[in-house]
Amino acid sequence: MLLAALALFLSAPLAGAQQQQTSPGGLTIQSPVLTIDAERLFEESAYGRRVIGEVDARGADLAAENRRIEDALGVEEKNLTDLRSTITPAEFRELADAFDEKVQNTRREQDAKARELNNTLEEARVVFLNAAAPVLEQMMREAGAAVVMERRSVFISSNAVDITLTAITRIDSVLAEEGTVPDE
Fold first, then answer.
1. In angstroms, how far is the first alpha carbon of the chain from the final one?
2. What does each C-alpha distance from 167 to 16, 64, 93 come to in angstroms?
3. Residue 145 neighbours by CB under 8 Å, 6+ apart
4. Spacing of C-alpha 79 from chain mean position
5. What predicted TM-score, i.e. pTM, was given to this entire model?
6. Which of 39, 129, 141, 174 is the most exposed place for a label (fewest CB within 10 A)?
């Protein structure tokens, strides 16, 4: 009951904003608080789709490289195991230690490549949000808002104050028009 009353109380001042909301690109919302889904903003923007596509392609290449390395190491391990009966335990231990070191180094190198790929994506998000900030600030002023909050941080709100789709449209347009599509 209390939750229903809270929802009714919070949505009442926004009823006018719901009726005023226009199509993506236009903004007639009048609200002191707006929400945005920052993840969706990045992922559905032209820039975000391009970066994610590039990172996914590089990730697929890395996965294929990992499979090739794993296959090669498997063959090397089998050869080492087959060699065991023909050499002394000391010689085998030396070869086994060298193989183990090779495996550990390879694992570290491949893990570093995966981290680099994740860092590339996170850095691209920051670059995008920095480039998008002026557009979001303009939308905030147009709506008479004092704050734009991450949608996931809001307990309850009206969908009328979510500007994500409109922001994607505007950001794509502004960045393309200005020729300022961010570079990583």
1. 50
2. 20, 37, 62
3. 31, 32, 33, 34
4. 42
5. 0.73
6. 141
